[in-house]
Specification:
The protein has a single domain, classed as Jelly Rolls (Sandwich), CATH 2.60.120.620. It starts with 8 loop residues before the first helix and ends with a strand. The longest helix has 15 residues. By secondary structure, the chain is of the alpha+beta class. The strands form 2 sheets. Strands 1, 2, 3, 4, 5, 7, 10, 12 and 13 form a 9-stranded antiparallel β-sheet that branches. A 4-stranded antiparallel β-sheet has the order 6-11-8-9, with no helix packed on it. It contains 7 helices and 13 strands. Helix 1 packs across helix 6. Helices cover about 25% and strands about 20% of the residues.
């Protein structure tokens, strides 16, 4: 985290950008106003009880700890509320507003940025009991852009700690190259390999509070454990790119138009 004593906006943003380029992630406390978080939480609750489509279920991903299929016990546990940008109008002005924009311009060293509607664009819902382990991966593995240079915004809507499945990140992992044999068929890190064990030992848990934002590079390796508490953990996740870095035509990354900020 950047020293809070740095008061000059330009100096502070440059310090954030330097930390981001070095580590592949940075946390900005309370970047999202509490009123926006409160409005979004109410809308999310309304979308969960009863569950309103579109949604992804834990059983759909097959990660460790997830129900085996939709008809199994806990098979109706949601994992993501999808299409969050178009779904939650209370969030749109902030997602494309000046506070988010100025941070992204600095982190991407860009003149103009866009929000992708094709990747993330969801509210993650980590329920107790049937949440799963997300294995070590880079988000860029299934994305198709001219350059693998995108930034994801992770908005905590409540406390995020190790016991409720907070994200873990490997600092500097976005700057390394990886041999094909370090990854499995789904492009997750193979933890049994000595080189990967050394990498994973560098991991840190990103603890967040309501309104805090984690920005992380699309090549930063990250993972998350299960929610072992009694409360649902909710997080908004969105992905941005330099306007000059366009999705490859005909791929999933170009399925929906990006939103200019």
């Amino acid at each position: 985290m950047v020293d809070p004593e740095i008061q000059t906006p330009q100096v502070r943003l440059q310090a954030l950008a330097d930390a981001f380029h070095r580590d592949g992630f940075v946390v900005v406390p309370k970047l999202c106003p509490d009123a926006v978080c409160a409005a979004l939480l109410q809308r999310v609750e309304d979308s969960l009880q009863p569950l309103l489509a579109p949604a992804e279920f834990e059983a759909d991903v097959g990660y460790p700890g997830a129900p085996a299929h939709r008809q199994a016990e806990g098979g109706d546990t949601p994992r993501r509320l999808l299409h969050a940008y178009s779904r939650f109008d209370c969030l749109r002005p902030w997602l494309t507003g000046p506070d988010v924009k100025r941070h992204l311009l600095a982190l991407l060293n860009a003149e103009a940025v866009c929000l992708s509607q094709c990747h993330h664009n969801c509210v993650m819902t980590k329920f107790p009991g049937y949440s799963s382990d997300t294995l070590w991966h880079q988000d860029v593995r299934y994305w198709s852009f001219q350059r693998p240079e995108l930034v994801s915004l992770w908005l905590a809507l409540g406390e995020e700690r190790e016991d409720n499945g907070a994200l873990l990140v490997i600092p500097g992992s976005h700057r390394q190259a990886y041999a094909a044999e370090q990854l499995d068929e789904a492009l997750f890190l193979r933890p049994e390999l000595p080189a990967n064990r050394v990498l994973i030992e560098r991991a840190i848990t990103v603890e967040l509070g309501r309104g805090d934002v984690l920005f992380f590079h699309c090549r930063t390796f990250h993972s998350a454990g299960r929610n072992r508490t009694r409360s649902v953990k909710l997080s908004g996740v969105f992905t941005y790119h330099d306007q000059r870095n366009q999705p490859v035509a005909g791929t999933k990354s170009a399925q929906y138009p990006s939103i200019p900020l």
